[in-house]
Amino acid sequence: MTTIRVPYGRTFAVAEVSDDVVVDVIEVPQVEPAGDPATATRKALSDPLGGFTWRGATSVAIAINDKTRPVPHHQLLPSLVERFAEAGIPDEAITFYVAVGLHEPMADSEFAEIVPEEILARYRVVSHDAGSGDLVDLGETSRGSPVTVNRGFMESDLKVVVGTIEPHQFAGFSGGVKSAAIGLAGPRTINGNHTLMTHDDSRIGTYETNPARQDIEEIGRMIGIDLALNVLLNSEREIVEVLAGDPVAVMEAGTPLARRYSQVGLAEPYDVVVTSPGGHPKDINVYQAQKAISSAAAVVRPGGTIVLTAACPEGSGSATYEQWVSNHTSHEAVLEAFRNEGFRIGPHKAFQIARDTVEVQLLVVSDMPDELTDRLLLTAAANLQSALGEAASTGAGIAVLPHASTTIPYLH
């Protein structure tokens, strides 16, 4: 028997199939870590890319990612604040903003999950709340996205973003200004930008030609973001590269590396694709886990089966998505309603799932109650073994994507 094992929450989902079934595990090439993360971070900060130069500041705002993003803040932030101290900036002038976008604001009690204890003890940390109304209106981008941003961040003298550069299903790549341009934006900004996800050129793994991503870059310029500190991670979530400097220069240096570390070419589509976002926190809810479906859809044959393994301990992850999709009865109905009603954040998740699975079977292995899975128009499977038993096969084999959210599979 051949064992299939993929990340699932904080553990693994496991199944066995007969040895006569072709099973291909689709992983990006393993890349060696950079060595000591603190040394690599200090080196990047001491020789920043682009036109950034270190200077004093009356106030510093640092955008960091929330609990749904596996950013190694514990390895990055100490070296960053050390650099500010060397520039003569006092602790009380520095504020960390948790960039939640339209997610629920993080509670103060949750900050220890993402921020080192020594940072919490010394610096002010606050969570963005897109619904609070405490936003600054900056006008519109050239593509028509209204731009509103967190007032505290916007009014700071020096603006910094911290994050990872990795594949993003419609913005091409995360990283650069995105942590603030989207993560600290208001609802109208996020809705406006995400409307561009339906454009043919808004595709995973693209940057210069991606309208959604270039809209994000324009938002970043309007905000006036000074410095990006970004990392690239391998499949073990170890730091491979640390880049710091002007946000555009960081993206221009980082996106070719991200492509190299994440793209995998395949000769033929598969009957069955077992896809995992990569475990916690990427499968914390359906809102996040959906990204693994997009990767699987690129390499499954029409009429085939995608098996999503995602624990989803926080359920759907979006009340708006959950309420909207529960009013429909099929993926076809979702696609029609979404096109008729126009773009909305929340329902866009239902659209993405429907778009990627309307011609294939989708089975979901999760910890969600069946009643919730049904309301989301998802078909639950008790476990990975039973899902593979239900999957239709014509002999074209099984592909396994253990880290689908950071893998770009393509047919060549």
Describe this structure in words.
Helix content is 31%, strand content 25%. It is α/β, with parallel strands linked by helices. It has 2 domains: 172 residues, LarA, C-terminal domain (2-enoyl-CoA Hydratase, Chain A, domain 1, Alpha-Beta Complex); 226 residues, LarA, N-terminal domain (Rossmann fold, 3-Layer(aba) Sandwich). The strands form 6 sheets. The chain has a 6-stranded parallel beta sheet, sandwiched between helices. It has a 6-stranded mixed beta sheet with strand order 6-5-4-9-12-13, with helices on both faces. It has a two-stranded antiparallel ribbon with strand order 1-2. Strand 10 and strand 11 form a beta hairpin. The longest helix is centred in the middle third of the chain and has 16 residues. The protein is globular and about 65 Å long. 50% of the residues are buried. The mean pLDDT is 94.
